[in-house]
Amino acid sequence: MNHYLLKACLLSTLISFASCKNESILSSSAAHDPTKDVVLTSFYPLQGGARDKILLDGENFGTDPSKIKVYFNKAQAKVISSSGERIYALVPRLPGADPKISVVVGADSVVYQQQFVYRTQALVSTVTGNGVKSFTPGTLSEATVYGKYLELDREGNIFMSWRDGNTAGSSAATFGVARINEAENIVTPLIQAPAETRVLYANGLTVDRSTGVLTAAHESVQEVMFTFDPKEAWYPRQRNMKYSSSDYASIVVGDRYKNFITFSPWDGHLYTRYRDGKVARINPQTLVATIIHQGPYGSQYGQAINPAKPWELYITLHSNASPIEFRQGIMVLDLRDPDGTGGFKRLNAPGGSSFKDGPIQDALFNFPKDIKFDNDGNMFVADYGNHCIRMVSPEGVVTTVAGQPGKSGYKDGGPTESLFNQPWGVAVNELGHIYIADWSNARIRKLVIE
User: Fold this and answer.
1) Rounded CA gap, 294 and 238, in Å?
2) 162, 236, 321, 370: which has the fewest C-beta neighbours closer than 10 Å?
3) How far is the C-alpha of 154 from the C-alpha of 373, rounded, in Å?
4) What average pLDDT does the structure give for the chain?
5) Cβ neighbours of residue 255 under 8 Å, at least 6 residues apart?
6) Which residues neighbour 144 within 8 Å (Cβ) at sequence distance 6 or greater?
7) Which domains does the chain have, with CATH numbers?
8) How large is the average pLDDT for residues 387-394?
9) Which DSSP helix (H) or strand (E) runs through 11?
10) What pTM does this model have?
């Protein structure tokens, strides 16, 4: 029998069984009794993936689903209903390895002895691009893209920066920022210019998801950034940061390159970092900029804020970083106390240009480039040299979620069969779908993990 048909039949049987069971116990349903313990007996099914239905059996749950919490490790499941003896819930996305199921009702928190087997399901598809290393606007099927960095807003717009390749019909290289929208089936430029003018030499992009405003830093002009406001149809506007004379002069001449700018919802400010290691905080309204931290020297590959802990600024450093122990590393800066003893630290093991999954302190990457988080605090890394996409869970465990480490190519499909060629940029939408700038394949890819 077809695998999906079999799954549908089993699901139908399960729902029917649950319905009959619920009908038989309606008369005995009771509110939670805080003087008695919550008791767990069994759950079914014993394995599954994200958004699968699960039935949790026991006693003294109560019948108000709003007062019941179910967790798979630390990931919270959606509780649909409860009869008092059976909870009907949905398996959460990416709960981590070997999840334990816990039920919280009132002051009681109880854990099932048996572990749930979580099955990760992932699929890689191509959004736009056909391998031609140039930028051409048009429909998703017609457009050509050669993007490096990506960002998303809440409305489903994908923003891409590019700085290589030509515009179709021209021999001159161009630089720019474009908007890609799957629902509208369109790729359009927001700003583009010939390489020699460098009106906006953009790398990393950032969006304030509450306002939708897109910001891009001009890499090679110390104080310049550009904003694109959806209320103005993303018309590009140059903004100049306002440094004090002492802060401005403190940034080393020749190292005044800022590849990234990142919005933090923790304090509503923007953050950028210069190649000499200085990190600046920028007020997006007044444009007042202040140097808040001096870190190690080095160019950057990526920069991102963790929305689950929005005071944490993550940075991936280039192979030119100094001291040497910071090369090809994933760093974190605590914005609450940036110059404190734990303000700046490396997370993964030293010794880049290699591959190793596992605890973050033992994990190895090969030129990790762009990084972005989903709303649950999972970090996704474009592992450029390993040709794959890696994930760092909130518990600090690194896994490979798509691509075949060390093998380049182009192939859509499941996590173990998909292939990438030097993925550079990543972005994550509100549903947790990951978009990838597959640079050497000159395509934008989409990874859906369930």
Assistant:
1) 27
2) 236
3) 14
4) 90
5) 274, 275, 276, 297
6) 129, 130, 132, 133, 134, 135, 136, 168, 442
7) 39-118 (2.60.40.10), 122-449 (2.120.10.30)
8) 95
9) helix 3-25
10) 0.83
